[in-house]
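Let us work through a complete example step by step.
Step 1: write down the sequence.
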Amino acid sequence: MSRKLYQFSISHYCEKTRWNLDAKGLDYEIVELLPLWHRIILWRIGGGTTVPVLQDGDKVIADSTRIANYLDDTYPERPLFPKEPGQRQLVFQLEDQFDNTARHIRRFMYGHMLQIPGSEQVMMRHLSPTMHKVGLTIAPVIRFSIRKNYRITPENIAKSLQKVRSTVQEIDSILNGDPNRYLVGNSLTMADIAAASLFGPLLGPPNSPWEDIGAVPETIANERSMILNRTFGKWVYNRYRLDRRRT
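Step 2: predict the structure and record it as tokens.
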């Protein structure tokens, strides 16, 4: 297959791109990468240093938002960006906002998950047996790298949680009590895919990569419970139940 997605299965940005590809009905091969080791693989194909990276024939596109733009331009069937200018601009704005909030979700999640010994193994469960063994060997380095790269400190975790809560309130305002509607217009757009997938690690919806990661720390469980009692939490579960179809 000429279309490959280089990814970490547990990454919410990678889930955003998988959903994007699936919603457009495009076939693709998944290449699961080992954290830290992934930089070598991506460097070889010219994809930078972060996932997701899509290789589509001779094209290599990094970053979930750039991939979304590329896919809608290259494969206009089943568009995920509206043609109407006002709605189109709103989808771009919301996707960008949710991408930014996703960095705070990641910091909040890792900040608490890394307190559990061996929690980094969740990132390795889809690796080949050989790469899984390598991952276990370098696990302490992976943990250190995550803390350093994502600037995980108690102060930053607290700030990130406030950002997450603020975004939840904003989306709740858009939904206006209706967990069944779409964020922009009357059909699925990249705004919906971004919001649902990027909040996935925190909410653990069924049919998502995070539904079976096991027990989470009490702080995460409490935050999850509070959001699931809101319109937005119900909306995320609805989007996964109704719109998350795989190619």
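Step 3: interpret the result. Residues 17 and 157 are 26 Å apart (CA to CA).
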